[in-house]
Write a structure and sequence with these properties.
Blueprint (H helix, E strand, L loop, with lengths): L2 E10 L6 H8 L5 E3 L4 E4 L5 E4 L3 E6 L8 H12 L3 H10 L3 E10 L9 H9 L3 E8 L1
Parallel strand pairs: 6-7
Antiparallel strand pairs: 1-5, 1-6, 2-5, 3-4
Length: about 140
């Protein structure tokens, strides 16, 4: 993957959280969902496993071929903005924690700029902003 993608992850350590119910409430199909107790296999040959300890929904952009974080952020805003009120309500109603993960995988240094609109959305969601960087 060379480029940048943005993920919005909503999660909870509530063992009774129904991620399907939350997904339907929000009205956007997640790219990934996990519930506490699920077993997830990973690694090159799926030979490693972990038991999920938090329930989560992940919404994500595709990997975008750009060195500008702002370009990828505009895509995640387009994805979530139509359902932003539902997402905000879900965060409060289901006591979810939210996090934006900005995944940067590039052979060169990126241009990092967070537009005001994105910062405002992150504040409304009380979201953490994390950078996963793979440069070189």
């Amino acid at each position: 993957m060379d480029g940048i993608k943005i993920e919005l992850i909503l999660f909870s350590d509530n063992p009774n959280l129904d991620v399907d119910l939350v997904s339907k409430f929000i009205g956007i199909f997640p790219v990934n969902k996990e519930s506490i107790g699920d077993t997830v296999y990973f690694g090159e040959t799926n030979n490693l496993k972990r038991v999920v300890d938090v329930s989560s929904l992940m919404y994500s952009t595709e990997c975008i071929k750009t060195i500008e974080v702002e370009v990828a952020i505009k895509n995640v805003i387009k994805l979530i903005e139509p359902k932003l009120n539902n997402i905000i309500e879900a965060v409060h109603k289901y006591r979810l924690t939210s996090k934006f993960c900005i995944v940067i995988s590039l052979p060169e240094k990126p241009i990092v700029f967070l537009p005001k609109e994105f910062v405002e959305i992150a504040a409304q969601l009380r979201a953490e902003i994390e950078f996963d960087t793979y440069i070189g």
